Amino acid sequence: MWLTQMPALLSTVELQALQPRVLGATRERMLRELAEALAVLTAEHALVLVLEDLHWADASTLDLLAILARRPEPSRLLVLGTYRPTELLSDSHPLSSLVHELLAHKLGVELVPGLLCEDDVAAYLRQRFAQSVFPPRLTKVLYHRTDGNPLFLVSMVDDLVAQGVILQADDHWVLQGESEHLTTAVPESIRHLVARQRERLQPEEQQMLRAASVAGMEFSVAAVAAALETEVVSVGERCARLAERQQFLRSIGIVAWPDGTTAARYGFTHALYQHLWHERVNIEQQQQWHLRIGERKEAAYGSRASEIAAELAMHFEQGQDYRRAVPYLWQAANNALQRSAPLDAIILLTKGLRLLETLPDNLERLQLELILQTTLGTPLIVTQGYATPEVEKVYARAQELCQQAGEIPQLFPVLLGLWIFNLVQGKLQQARQLGEQLLSPAYNIQSPGRLLRAHTGLGMTLFFLGELAPALEHLGHSLALYDPQQHRSYSLRDGQDFGVISLSFTSVVLWLLGYPDQALKKSDEALTLARELHPFSLVWALIVAAIFHLLRRERQAALQQTETLLALCEEHGFSQFVGMGRLYQGVTLCQQGRTEEGVTQIRQGLAAQQAAGMELVKPYHLSLLAEGCEKAGSPEEGLNVLVEALEKVNSSGERVYEAELHRLKGMMTLQQAKQKSKGKSQKSKIETDPQGEAEAYFQKAISIAQRQEAKSLELRATMCLARLWLAQGKGAEAHRRLAAVYNWFTEGFDTADLQEAKALLAQLTSGEGTGEKFTPSSSPTVPQNTTPSPTG
Q1: Low-confidence winner among 86-95, 228-237, 472-481 (lowest mean pLDDT)
Q2: N or C end of the chain: smaller count of CB under 10 Å?
Q3: Mean pLDDT of the 226-243 span
Q4: Span 180-204, average pLDDT
Q5: Residue 543: what are its φ and ψ, rounded to 5°?
């Protein structure tokens, strides 16, 4: 990931080969790679990493510090960070919370530098001035005049050198005369000292330093020359003289711009120096210099201006040219997304929206806001989840802007964002309407990439509505359009890869329709593709794969996908999906017989999903809780949960699992009756007809499954009905009904449901358990059934 941020180190071929491997990687991955790189560097040599002025550090730097502190592996690494405590007076400062955490967990030590002693001052002079011939009293005077303050000491000595009180004579340093300055000029504050140093500079040098402070803590001589509208050579000479005297500046090499400009690069020796010089620039001058620097660097970078978008945005913002600053803020946000820094992207985009408020209310401003709002949706989804109010607010505002501007094609990403928001919140009718709008030529301009996402969106929505055949058709169209190389760039823009989504949901649709083998193949393809892309898409593939294997009653495979999902969430900070992973883990615990623990975990997972605003898949998740309650010996509690699940089905329209809810209701009705019959009289047993009630539920489940063409769910409900009829002595009718469904299948005969159905047919044939033995009119052979094409 870090190598791709330094393209100059790679050839074009190498860069192109590397980029697909890191596409969409998260900021957590980048931080982990950097931490591991530092650990590797310590394998042969000890490493001291110094980070100065952490009170100005960005969020990513502080996250790196936290990761390095928490690493359990030993390494020969010392991280030393400096900051000003006065900057951390507010508990809201991000560094403040980090410092408190590290100290509380004993992951670091806070060193408060004390004042230097006289011996320290002597050591400093010896190190700075090799071959020096100073009288002993110099150390004593400097110590007393500075009170041992390190910054004052360095500044005082710098001043003595600049004044010629300390000067180099041949190959050694000497103290020149008995200067009054040595004994009396002790700075009362660093500001006074800087002021005295400033007064001894030439006016041109002072002007140059003021312009340099506007250019930045580190700057190119060419940028300062642009601000002053003077020659680069003259600015370079002044900077060189100051750096040579160790006065305010230090040399840090040479920088080349894309237009061929090559110039020396300098930096202030301390950030406070930059700050104090910057204070001496009036607002009007700051604005003018920022504009000149921004324009010069914009011209120098030309088509590559996006590489320094954040810097250009700062200059144009400070120059109060907000019309030019906003597009660069947007580009800087895109750069942040490319390097998996969604939080940084949110900050940049939010600032852009704030600056827009100062621009005239016209079509240009409206279009700029539309671009910012639609881009903001993706990092908000990644960091906060799909169904948060902030996400809805962004896309709702973007839709309003599209309607005002009449920008029909630009409405597509807005409709896509609104679609996924409504889908996750369980508002399926609204999601369906939006999905149908996405397919409109007016919105997608018949772009393959847009058609791909539109078919995926509508296919997913129809799946949850229980319209399986149309869902498969749309998902098939999506897969036919998908080109892994061409469409991977959409995954960063949208937050997920639609090829992975289409394959994942195709697998579940095919299983429901009665094609278990084809379904398994698509599920494996989805996981393989997701592993080649980025973690966020892999999370989606793992979630659907876990559901898929739970539906197939493959406990071990479901557990494996769930554990991988939870590890991925922990590694990359996808907290919004942890609840779902815990829920599926709880189901596995119930299947292992740890029902109390499993039911508790399922409930916690449901609560986490509800807190995140995720209502989608809730009927299925409630069915898992109901089954857990039934396994725990509480069918009555399970029935109450199923009532809640069916109410959710009716309110949201999420009917894909409706047949199973009725089947489970029939099963638990029988289980409840069995419990109640214990210890009761025969008279109380016949007051109700639980078998008739259960049969009605089974018949309804079969009817719903047939209407949805969900053969796998029809088979399950029919097996329950057959067992009930077998107990009632209606084995022949049970065999006929079950054989008709079983004989429809053409694949998947090694799956749990089909093996169970085969065994039940054999039991029905022999009359085992009822004494009713008969010869079926037709054997349970498999006809050559027409198989749907998963590509539509």
Answers
A1: 86-95
A2: C
A3: 94
A4: 69
A5: -60, -50
> At a CB cut-off of 8 Å and minimum separation 6, what does 420 contact?
381, 386, 457
- pLDDT tens digits along 592-620: 889 999 999 999 999 988 888 888 999 99
C-alpha distances out from residue 430 to 416, 462, 519, Å: 12, 12, 28
- Cβ atoms within 10 Å, residue 777: 9
pTM of the model: 0.69
Three-class DSSP category at 483? coil
Task: Note whether 415 and 430 are within 8 A (CB).
Answer: no
Strand bridging mode 262-268 / 249-256: antiparallel
Helix axis angle, 516-532 to 498-513, nearest 10°: 170
Q: What is the largest CA-CA distance in the chain?
A: 124
Give the bridge partners for 571, in sequence order.
none
Residue type, 12: T
CA distance 4 to 332: 16
- Report the alpha-carbon distance of residue 456 to residue 760 in Å, rounded: 39
- Reported as half-sphere exposure (CB side, CA atoms, 13 A), residue 787 has a value of 15
Residue 335 CA to its chain's centroid (Å) = 14
CB 271 within 8 A of CB 212: no
- Alpha carbon of 128 to those of 123, 125, 152, 158: distances in Å? 9, 5, 15, 11
pLDDT at 768 over 80: no
Residues 6+ apart with CB under 8 A from 330: 348, 349, 352, 368, 371, 372, 375
- Separation between Cα atoms, residue 599 and residue 590, nearest integer Å: 7
Give me the percent of the chain exceeding a pLDDT of 70: 90
CB 578 within 8 A of CB 605: no
If you average pLDDT over residues 332-338, what whole number do you get? 87
Q: Which residues fall within 8 angstroms of residue 294, CB to CB, at 6 or more apart?
A: 312, 315, 316, 319, 321, 324
Closest to 380 measured CA to CA, from 616, 61, 150, 613: 613
CB 172 within 8 A of CB 133: yes
What pLDDT score was predicted for residue 181?
A: 60
Helix residue ranges per DSSP H, 262-321: 271-279, 283-301, 309-318
* pLDDT, the chain, mean: 86
From the centroid of its chain, how far is CA 391?
14
CA distance 232 to 234: 6
CA distance 789 to 705: 20
Could you tell me which of 621, 625, 623 has the C-alpha nearest to residue 609? 621
Tell me the three state secondary structure of residue 268. Answer: strand
For the packed helices 498-513 and 468-481, what is the interaxial angle rounded to 10 degrees? 140
The CB-side HSE value for 715 (13 A sphere, CA atoms) comes to: 29
Least confident of 234-238, 281-285, 400-404, 505-509: 400-404
CB 59 within 8 A of CB 98: no
- Kind plus residue range of the DSSP H or E element containing 125: helix 118-128
